[in-house]
Amino acid sequence: MALLNDVKSELASFNSDLPAAKMAQAATMMRFGGGLRPVNHKAVIHGQFDSLEAVEWLRSTIDHYFQREAKVSKVTRQTPNGIIQRYDLLVEHGATALALQTGLLDRRMRLVPGLPAEVIGGNIAQVKAAWRGAFLARGVISDPGKASYLEIICPTHETAIALQGAARRLGITAQARKVRSSERITLRDADAIERMLNLMGAPRSAREWTGKRSDGEARGKANRLANFDDANMRRSAKAAAEATQKVHHAFEILGDDIPPNLKAAGDLRLKHTDASLEELGRLADPPITKDAIAGRIRRLLQLATKTEKARKAAEEAKG
User: What domains does the chain contain, in order, with CATH numbers?
Assistant: First the structure.
């Protein structure tokens, strides 16, 4: 959540000198925030946002670039997850003219189902501004260290497709999908998310995202290695316990009829039940390699198996 606030704060402070980009961002924010709607038999533009900096950017832009008055009010709502704050933006006077200026209405006075043609068909600065505006209005991003995603909740299927096409123009693949009753556009590739943050105008947040993601991946790798080492230790301990039982059984079968070097290796296994083969090799007198101690224990067990089979065969022959 902290990262989301940081991203929106940085995007809201992004300053483009291109009027077309400002108009594209404002139009997209109005479209994704709520749009043109009838209230008391009058058309108004209404939007709701979760970032005060975002709504203040839109209010200021509507005032300076479109010469319309926009009012901002704070809304507090109780939800199952606690109290949340939202910020309403309302344009009452001249809302229809503003919708025409920004392309939310076409020349036949029909609501545009997606995004204005001059936005999605504009220059790259306008395309970036459209993504910036959509994210400021309805964007979310995962915290680093968790499953990576950057997602925008879209008002219609057409707006999701328009945003998907805009991402494609930026060289990024975005997935349009429907989750229950909402249309969404989603990025899941971590590198694509980092690139989109930079393209939208949030390089500081992109660096933070990359750094925290790297830290999370490093911790995950360390945990995996620790788990791997722990599993190896468990396997080694289990193998040592099984080998100890087999050596004890071999000694019972062979009695005193054991070659000295094999008996010494077996004695080490019985005396140091938790030791690894490498440790047993170092304990031998003189010290020998891991492979050598393993070979001697293996020959001891093979000799015991051979002896046991021979005895059974002899008993069967007598019977």
Answer: 2-201 (3.10.28.10), 236-318 (no CATH)
